Amino acid sequence: MPHIQTDAVPVPDVDAELRRRVFSIPGIDEGESSLSLPGARSLLLSDGIELARPEVLPTGREFGHFHPDGSLHLWLAVERALEVHETTWGELHPVVERDDFWDGVVMVYVPETTAEADIALQLVADAYNYVVGVELDPSSFD
Questions:
Q1: 114-132 and 78-87 helices cross at what angle (nearest 10)?
Q2: pTM check: above 0.85
Q3: Architecture of the domain defined by 15-47+58-135
Q4: pLDDT tier at 134 (50, 70, 90 boundaries)?
């Protein structure tokens, strides 16, 4: 710990555009992460958003965060987290098998291209959808 991508080199334009798109999604607020390294930016569910699965979140309303290097931790459905790991878009968090830690937590690797940023954006939407219990389409928010 901490669980970070050690060989990450963010592409400034790709990173900035992904963050812009993520934080333009209604219901996602940005804040300082209470779960990660200093400088990490949390993906917080707005106060008015009802949670369908609050039990998967470790504290409060943070369902993910950007690390300073541009990688992300996200709380996903376990099946989707396994897909992220198997496709090498990211990896499972090293403590997912602990009793008090959700098994669907992944680190999404730093996107280096627009296509990889699109995948990361979809994974953010998948995490949002899972925790909130909706079917948000991220392509409708730019």
A1: 160
A2: yes
A3: Alpha-Beta Complex (3.90)
A4: very high
